[in-house]
Amino acid sequence: MGRKEVTVKLETITPLWTGDAWLQNKKIRPSSLIGSLRFWFSVYWKVIINKNTEKLNDKNVIADDLREFKDLRGKKATFRQILFERIAKREDYKCFDEVLDDVFEELGLPVPSRLFGCTGWKSRVDIRRISYKEEEIESKNLDFKFPFSKDSKFNTEFWIKKSLFNNENNNENKVVLYKNIEFTLKAPNYWWDRYLSDFFSFYKDKIILVGGKLSFGFGMVKMMIEGSQEIQEINEQEINESNKNDANWNDIIRMDKIENIKYEKQCNVLGYNFRYFLRREEEKKYREKNFGKQGVASSIYVSNLIRDSSNHIYIYLINFNNPFSGNKNLSEKIFNNYKELLNEKLKSEGDRSV
């Protein structure tokens, strides 16, 4: 049968922050990377390939259970029964994984669950040997004016410190950001050739979001396989052109650059999701009307503040229409209004520090 082994590189345009279930950020875990790969594969499978993806419960958690899938022939046969039938018939399969895939197809189990696992079925993808660079930022070097609200009473510093520093891992008031992540991915040859190879080929010129916890720390990342093409410094043209290759993809993610920012502070602005911006109870009606239910991430993401080698300062405003969130697509008017508001806020904060 054989197994394919490749090195996956996540070239970070902006570093990312993450955390486990206890909000501790000690390291990047294989389960986190598997989760990111699964999510973006599901986006690819649903939007680009236009096929069925996993069943989600009311909390947007994967709810596929292999034991609940029955075949469509009217016999309601189980996975084991159909598998034994296939083996007994000795049909012309090249490998056992092809038999499994054929059985799953008859059962109607979505491909993302076949690849990355579900209740009753183990993932075909294995991740080993993770490496990355770390960047430590002390709380005193963060600009707590972001995220911001038009309501001056909105205490962003309290929420940031509670989210990022109020746990056992951050007694020193530091947050660790990760850059340029590499890991070894192993998968049986059949699953690589049938599904994963095209998946990685599709994303090699796309910019995606990885990481994040409690609305903070989403990193802009370019994902590729080592040796597929030479990884070069990601430049402005590449950002602008990265998501134009596919019409369906243009409906999913949009990135607008806010530049020429006069921000003289030597502080960091962490990337965040817009839902944090609308947590006050009096804004609930506005939020649900325009963005969906409270607790569900909105489609607006703000990148980390970026300083390039020429000391130019800029930031990205990202509109990601998550096909699984159930939220309505963000209107052009709201997106542009927040872009203007963010630009004004950055410049006003910069002017105060001069």
From TrEMBL:
Q: Which UniProt keywords apply?
A: Antiviral defense
Annotated CRISPR type III-associated protein domain ranges read 9-221
Its ancestry begins with: Bacteria, Bacillati, Bacillota, Bacillota incertae sedis, Caldicellulosiruptorales
Which species does the entry assign this protein to? Caldicellulosiruptor acetigenus (strain ATCC 700853 / DSM 12137 / I77R1B) (Caldicellulosiruptor kristjanssonii)
Q: Which domain of life is it from?
A: Bacteria
Gene Ontology biological process terms from the UniProt entry? defense response to virus
| Positions in coiled-coil regions | none
InterPro entries for this protein: CRISPR-assoc_prot_TM1795, RAMP_III_fam
Instruction: Output the Pfam families linked to this UniProt entry.
Output: RAMPs
Give the protein name, as stated in the record.
CRISPR type III-associated protein domain-containing protein
NCBIfam families reported for this sequence: cas_TM1795_cmr1
